[in-house]
Amino acid sequence: MGCYVVDFLCPDAKLAVELDGGQHSTETDAERTRIIEVHGYLVIRFWNNEVNENIEGVLARIMETLRASTPHPTPLPDGERE
């Protein structure tokens, strides 16, 4: 995205996941997020230690974000399914 390499990207969902460690600064991350969002992506961020210590929580938040940002077709083409 621009001059940045995104940590994880899901083009179909227009979702970018960024992992932040001690080298990240709030100011730099804000600009990076802005550039990625200009390309039409939603950005969610996690600290590296969150991934290492609570991967289930990280995955749950990613799934919640995907569910919230992905509209269902109306009506659903093959009926209602999980």
From TrEMBL:
Please state the span of the N-terminal signal peptide per the UniProt entry. Answer: none
Task: Return the InterPro entries for the record.
Answer: DUF559 (IPR007569), Endonuclease_DUF559_bact (IPR047216), Restrct_endonuc-II-like (IPR011335)
DUF559 domain boundaries: 1-66
Which protein, by its recorded name, is this? DUF559 domain-containing protein
| Source species taxonomy | Bacteria, Pseudomonadati, Pseudomonadota, Alphaproteobacteria, Hyphomicrobiales
